Amino acid sequence: MIENSRKGYLIFAEVFFCLFVFMKQFYLFPSGSIGIGDVFLVISAIIVFVVQMFIVKEKFLYTIDFYWYIFIAFVVLINGFYFFKTKNIDFLKYIIYWLYSTVAIWTYRKLAGKQFFDKVVKVCEINIILQLLIYCFGLGRYYHEGWGGGRFMGTFNDPNQCAFFIFTMLLFIFMCQCHKLNLEFGIFFCLSVFVIYITKSTGMFLGIFIFGLILTLQKVISIYKNSAVKKIWNILFVVGILLICFSIYKVWPSENFDITQTDYTLMSRIQQKIWKFSHGNLADFLYDRSAERLLQYPQNLILGAGEGYFERFPLGDFVNKISPGVFVMEFTHEIHSSFFEIWYCYGIVPTVILIMWLIKNIKACDKKRMAAVMAILIESFFLVNYRQPFFWYILVYSSSLGLVYSECRK
After folding, report:
1. Which UniProt keywords apply (predicted)?
2. How confident is the model at residue 145, as a pLDDT?
3. Which of 153, 278, 336, 365 could form a cystine bridge with 289, CB 3.0-4.6 A?
4. Burial environment of residue 168 by CB neighbours within 10 A (0 to 12, 13 to 18, 19 or more)
5. Per residue in 309-358, pLDDT tens?
């Protein structure tokens, strides 16, 4: 809605949205169920809906989300088909997840505006500090490996959830402040890196590493273009490459690497990943990402298998292709890649439609904000996090602001 014409109508919706952002980190029930934060988001959406319908007469849906709604229609049709075919309620659950994301995006777009985003930024900063304090005071939960290693997960049910939450809080702060980065952002960047470090999440480490790398490259390239001493920068570039190669050499695990005999840090988990893939093969890599079904049941990449009831895809003969002693054999659920999970579950046509929607939103980003967008997209290739609203909030941030400015010009 037009920021200058709110007249207080949406103040309560903004309050409940900020409560959603704050309460989202508190998991009282199993993952996948309704959380306290989700309730506040729904209340915010209801308020926006009432204001939209009866007080402020504006466009209900935005044309930029046309492809999104087509994709959601495919989600309902495909999952609905498999529900009636198998009678498995999982498919209905995933329909609800996608409808929830739709409501989350719609509400976010309707509230979008600089003043609103500034309020959300403050909550994001509080969230990062809170998880850090919970760790410092020894109040957080821990995930314990079978052999004794522990990973901090704060108020979450899973360390990767905690790390992703912190990661997206930082990215949202950046999206709002990228044109005026200061010491305060640097502090929150360091705090976020620390919290992600103690969760020992390799996926989120990859994400924040890529984010930091892109930011650094953007700055270096900008300085390089305006520099009169390019030879010095060329030398520094070569030195940087050599340092990266040396770091990889130092991190590379030994032939007999055993994580149970280490101090179990983020670095040792990275070494474990390297050891697994250096001693395994393509089948091992696919199995580690629960992506073996891409080869076993490739027909589902065309029309989609529906999302849910993953027990339909047993390992079968694929188990014979996995290197013995490298991976623990156990059944896992979704493919650990947002892109391939969506493609496999919904097929080519819906996936292409979703990509078209993403492209339209990403085109609205300027070069500075692209660092956050690229970081979360690359990270999402290795984890499934598209059920979290902030995953989408990062991607549609710029286009949402663009809608506000276009309405103000009318």
Report:
1. Ligase, Membrane, Transmembrane, Transmembrane helix
2. 81
3. 336
4. buried
5. 988 888 777 777 776 655 555 556 789 899 999 999 999 999 999 999 99
CA triple 287-290-292, angle to 5 deg:
60
Q: How many CB atoms lie within 10 A of CB 187?
A: 13
Nearest Cα to Cα of residue 211 among 193, 233, 191: 193
Q: 391: which residues sit within 8 A by CB, 6+ positions away?
A: 168, 338, 376, 380, 385
**What CA–CA distance (Å, rounded) separates 151 from 142?**
5
pTM of the model: 0.91
Cα–Cα nearest to 203, from 8, 17, 394, 384: 384
Q: What is the DSSP string of 303-326?
A: H---SS-GGGS--GGGGGGSPTTT
Q: What is the full DSSP assignment across 26-74?
A: ---S-TTSPPHHHHHHHHHHHHHHHHHHHTS---SS-GGGHHHHHHHHH
Residue with tokens 């893939």: 277
In 3D space, the residue among 261, 271, 268, 279 whose CA is nearest the CA of residue 147 turns out to be 261
Beta carbons of 199 and 162 less than 8 angstroms apart: yes
